[in-house]
Design brief:
Strand content: 25-35%
Structural class: alpha+beta
CATH class of the largest domain: Mainly Beta
CATH architecture of the largest domain: Sandwich
Number of domains: 2
CATH topology of the largest domain: Jelly Rolls
Shape: rod-shaped
Number of strands: 9
Length: 224
C-alpha cells in the first residue's frame, strides 16, 4: 500500500511538472511570437522610411527649385518665387550661369557686374542672401558661378529679389540663368542606407523567429 501511494504521488508530481513545463513553453512561444511580430512591423516601418528618404535624396540631388533668366546687361530688379522641397540636405546654393560663346568663361563675361539677391519667407523674414562679386565667388564649373550658399530653408514658398546694381556690358541682351539647388554631402544617403539595412535585418530576424515557432508547433502532430 505504501508503495502504491508513493507511485501515485510520483505520478501526480510528474504530471504537474509536465503541465508546468507546457505552460512555460506556451508562454515562451507567445513572447517569441510577440517579439517576432514587433520586429517585422518595426522593420517594415524602417524600410518604408528608408526608401522614402532614398527617393527624396534622389529628387533633391537633381532638383532646381529656382530657374529664372535675368537681364544683367542693365540695372533693375527681378522678382521670382523659390519653391523649397527639401530641408534635410547639407547645403543649398544659388548659382548664376550665363550663356557662353566659344572661348568665353563665366568669370570674364560677368566682369563689371554687381548684383544682390535676397530670399524672404511669407512673413518677410530674410532667409538667404547672396551677391556678386563676393570674396568666396568662384566658378562651380566652366559655365556657372556660385553667388549664395547656406543651410537649406524649411519647405515652402519664398520670394526672391535679384537687384542688378551695376550691369555687365559683355552680357547686354544676353540674359543669364539663375538657379538654386541642393548640395548633398553623403550623410543623407547614409541615413537612408542605415534605415533600409536595419529594417531588412529586423524583418529577417522576425521572419526567422516566426518560422521557428511554426516548425516547433507542427512537430508534435507529425510524429509516428
Amino acid at each position: 500500500m505504501a508503495g502504491d501511494n508513493f507511485m501515485g504521488q510520483s505520478s501526480v508530481t510528474a504530471s504537474a511538472m509536465l503541465r508546468r513545463r507546457g505552460r512555460v513553453r506556451a508562454a515562451l512561444r507567445l513572447c517569441l511570437g510577440v517579439v517576432g511580430a514587433a520586429l517585422i512591423i518595426t522593420g517594415g516601418a524602417f524600410l518604408w522610411r528608408g526608401f522614402r528618404l532614398h527617393a527624396a535624396c534622389r529628387e533633391a540631388e537633381t532638383a532646381e527649385v529656382l530657374d529664372i533668366r535675368v537681364d544683367v546687361g542693365a540695372t533693375g530688379r527681378r522678382h521670382a518665387t523659390l519653391k523649397q522641397i527639401a530641408e534635410f540636405t547639407c547645403r543649398q546654393h544659388i548659382r548664376m550661369a550665363p550663356e557662353l560663346r566659344e572661348g568665353e568663361d563665366a568669370v570674364n563675361v560677368l566682369r563689371g557686374l554687381e548684383l544682390a539677391i535676397s530670399v524672404r519667407d511669407a512673413g518677410g523674414v530674410e532667409r538667404m542672401t547672396g551677391a556678386y562679386p563676393t570674396s568666396f565667388t568662384a566658378p562651380h564649373d566652366a559655365g556657372s558661378v556660385t553667388i549664395a550658399d547656406s543651410p537649406p530653408m524649411p519647405v515652402g514658398e519664398y520670394s526672391l529679389v535679384v537687384n542688378v546694381v551695376s550691369p555687365a556690358p559683355a552680357l547686354a541682351g544676353r540674359p543669364v540663368r539663375i538657379v538654386s539647388g541642393y548640395d548633398l554631402c553623403g550623410i543623407e544617403w547614409m541615413g537612408a542606407a542605415v534605415e533600409i539595412l536595419g529594417g531588412a535585418a529586423a524583418v529577417a530576424i522576425g521572419a526567422i523567429i516566426g518560422g521557428a515557432l511554426w516548425v516547433s508547433r507542427r512537430r508534435p502532430s507529425e510524429g509516428p
